[in-house]
Amino acid sequence: MHIKVIIREALRDFKTQFSQFLTFYIIYSIAVAVLLLPGAIWLLNTFVATTGNAALSDYALVGFILSPIGIATVIIFGVIALAFAFARDTGTMLIGFGAAAGTPVTFRRAFVLMLHRLGSILWLNTLVVVIVLITAVPFLLLGFAAYKMMLPGDINYYLAEKPPEFYQALLVIGVVVLAFLTVAAYLYVTWSFILPALLFRDKRGRAILAESRHLVKGHFFKIASLRVGWLIVAFGTVIVVHWIYWRIGQAVFELLVSGMTSLLFVSAGLIVLDAVLLAILNFLRTTLTALFALHLYEAVVTEKGVGMGTVAELDSAETQTQWHIPRVVYVVAAVAVIVAIIVVAFGLQNTVATNTYAEIIAHRGGAIAAPENTLAAVRQGILDGTDVIEIDVQETKDGTVVVLHDADIRRVTGLAKNIWEVNYDEIKDLDAGSWFDPAFSDEHIPTLEEVLDEIGDQAIVLIELKYYGHDQALAQKVVNMVEERGIEDQVRIMSLLYSGVQEVEQLNPDLETGLLAVVTAGDITNLDIDFLAMSHGEVDRAFVDDAHRKGIEVAVWTINDHADMVHFINLGVDSLITDTPTTVHDVSAELAKLTPSQRALIQANQLFGFDQVTESGEQ
């Protein structure tokens, strides 16, 4: 079992059957993109619809995943994801097996043989996913128990202060994670030959796993080192090559001093070639990894003297003459790349929104220059020219609605108690500003009434309802305060909990309501809301356009970086939730001086580390 021999044979098969591998990969990738992925999205939306909602986010998503139908969804999508990889590797291995056996297998034959085994592949995938999930459960429970026991308070305190118990908990949880990864690695190595066992040894169900264990036995550590080493090399090569390409892209722009048209075409070229490069690297990685696994299997069975196995359908298969990709195909591909560059170059000019300004929402009042969620922060936010002041509210033990982010007050006052465990009179005089700066020692945890009175008509107020499972009538109380002051047109209300948003909508349909979301499942733009406050990783131009078509505004949080502000304003978002409101003003002033083409250039080239363009269009 020599690594050099295995790699040499894998490269030999890759070279001799290159056209078959490439054609199979291209057709398979198109089939996945056109048929399988849309089907998977439809299936996910169907499962989500069983909850009675068009989409799920955060708390609701976690609850769904832990439900029986949610667990079934996780299993099904795990099976689908694994089936994508197994089906691709099946076709690749069959072409490689035909080359080694002297019975050439074309890409057409590989597809037929793959489809014949699709049922067995899905059953095997189901078995693997269920075993992995069952294996993961005790580790998840142990890690969660360690987290709750060792870090009983709000996680924000531990992240900010990092006391000794924080590092102790990290150590324990790290050991649990390492233990799970060790078990997962053991399963990964033990199952090294499950696909060859299915394809070439005609095993089914659990017998496939048993056969793979039998083949690995006696060679575990050598196989482990070979497979892990190969994965490191394969993925490492992709990362390094793409990094080199990215650096070349930077160098090109540093040397280029042409006009806007040239810059746009260069940008388009780099984008198209980046996509082509990633496709080529993925083809090489997946094909060579499957061939490496095939020849590793061949080396093991040869050493054990059990024979490589057969593919029954090949015995009667008509030998097909190998063919090579005609030169015209390469010419067509080159022309397609050139056309794509031209289309992307002209399309870039239409990808940027017309607005140069996004509404400024001061995160937790103005948390960069004053202690968050205090009256000082509110005043600072107004002083900075903020359009909207965002605050968090929850209830004390006696039902007072206070402005506070964390579940407990330890981070901002030093008192290790949950907010629902204390009456307001017990905390109203506590120092809630010195943790930020001693100059704010007079600041306290304000009530919502104090904040509303402080803001008056100077800005819109965005109230986030914080639900930690101990609220008494939070939505009702907040709505009552707003109605008593007659400021419905100056207040917006949002929450991570969609049911809380729905309650506000029922109490007063005239109030603007929105959902705060970190992760989502389903089409969240189909929910009955006025705006979405999204994590920045969830937002792209298509999402913004889809939301706007449905009359929903989009805010993104928490955006403090200059380049990120440029990016999201260019995408057309309506609002930026930020700790640095004055920076948004500066960015908007810069964008107002640029043409749409210049803004499109910035948007395209941020991938390569550039986000600034002068008024003349030069970098």
Descriptive key words:
globular; 619 residues; disordered C terminus; two-stranded antiparallel sheet; eight-stranded parallel beta barrel; alpha/beta; single chain; 61% helix
Average pLDDT, to the nearest integer?
88
* N/C terminus separation: 55 Å
Q: In angstroms, what is the radius of gyration? A: 29 Å
Helix fraction bin: 55-70%
**What structural class do the secondary elements suggest?**
alpha/beta
Number of H/I helices: 24
Question: Could you walk me through the main structural features you see in this protein, from its secondary elements to its overall organization?
Answer:
The protein starts with a helix and ends in a 14-residue tail after the last helix. α1 packs across α12 and α22 crosses α23. The chain has 24 helices and eleven strands. The strands form two sheets. The chain has an eight-stranded parallel β-barrel, surrounded by seven helices. β10, α22 and β11 form a beta-alpha-beta unit. It is globular and about 85 Å long. Helix content is 61%, strand content 8%. It is α/β, with parallel strands linked by helices.
